[in-house]
Amino acid sequence: MKNKILWCIFFCMGSLLMAQDSLSLEVNAYAIDNLFLFVCAVLVLFMQAGFAMLEAGLNSAKNTVNILFKNIMDLSAGALLYYILGYGLMYPGDGNGWFAFAGFGVSEAGVDPASGALHPQVDWLFQVAFAATAATIVSGAVAGRLKFSAYLIYSVVLTGIIYPISGYWKWGGGWLDQLGFYDFAGSLVVHALGGFAGLAGAIVLGPRLGRFGKNGHSKVIPGSNLALSALGVLILWVGWYGFNPGSQLAISGAANTNAVMLIAANTTLAAASGAVAAMLMAWSLYKKPDLTMALNGALAGLVGITANCDSVTNIESIIIGLVAGLLVVLGIKLLNKLKIDDPVGAWPVHGLCGIWGGIATGLFGGHPLVAQIIGSIVIPAWAFITMFILFSILKSVDLLRVSEEEELIGLDISEHKEEAYAGFQIFTVE
Amino acid sequence: MKLIISIIQPEELPAIKEELLKRKIYKFTITNAKGQGKEIPVQEVYRGISHEITLLIKVRLEIAVNDEYVDAVIDAITTVAKQDGDKGRGKIFIMPIEECIRIRTGEKGTTAIG
Fold this sequence. Notes:
With 430 residues, chain A is mainly α. Chain A has 14 helices and no strands.
């Protein structure tokens, strides 16, 4: 009798423990996945530092305050707008596939703990980091001549409206998604959008003074600090481990873990082969290994692998990176030929290689090629046309470009009355 | 008293400094300078665009000495600076000094220089 009671107690406690175990497994998986996304969001936010350093280094010293200011403001103003408007536009939950709005702000309530369930707040954090990346790509392309106020207007429009709408078409489940278009982490949705917005800005603005000679030949406006540029690119490379692996959105469970690890390795291989290919291409074309080309090449590889990093093999990643590295050098050459002044190579890196990423997803990733081609045309066209209109409106009311005199003095003094390198000899007007 | 101003190549500075110290010439001032001479301009390529750099980096050396040290200074510079026929090796200018005052003591003339 005594034994029977003891057995009964053991049995009850056992089943109670088991129930607790399965509950705590779910809670743990919930914590792990949310922690994973949180860390990745922070890595992607850190890419802002990379962009700031890359662009500061590739521009004249007299425009350093301005370029740093643009980088902090497209994140800050963009985050507020993406909170108020953007997130609801990009993830309306349902809608007609073209345009829908879930409402202002982001839910603060937690969700039922389960593997892969994401707290809405960390989801927003991850998404806003992507929106800021798309916005900040443009700051380099328009450097040295755009009015600061014009840049503020541009950033709120891009992160609040333009990026979320095309983002909805794909990641929000809109018409491009229904078509079968695939863009894992945003070669098109993020990078090509930013790259083509930057191209529109560079075209409407026109080149910096002295960038092209009287007979149309290209002239050099050298970067002021290649140490900062190299630091920036390496920060961006590291930040990309949040961008691509984070886009798996979960790491708990063997399938997710496997995917994340493949994505991380593919991302590395594409960046490395992009840098090598750009170095060799510049070396053979211009008889010297150009550091800034290799830096652009690493980024080009990263942009190219972003859409397909979960769908391709290691070897295919290397091929995608190599092609991106060649493309970026040719893209820079093409812009020179067309007399378009993009001081940091934002379009060759993010625009051209963003499209390459979309196409490569069809060529190597096993996704339908026609849908890839449609997506790779539609998103760049959307960004280019809307931003071309916006920059043209700003130009028509004379809000776009600083005066010749202000440009020669440098935007640091003329726009901000502030020097980046006060007291240093390197502040020269060239 | 003479003021010697010499434009030299930056990479020659450490050796010239050593030669000056060997000849007991301890006081001089240098400035980073850019100059354009008869030398062939340097061709650089930046992001696929080649450009010519005609203003090249130089060092400007200023030495104030008593007359008997002038030859030693010239010797120190020319020992190091290559006289290999290449253009753009720099120059040495020598000019008289009207007065020299040591600020700390108010001494004047040849004692102030040495």
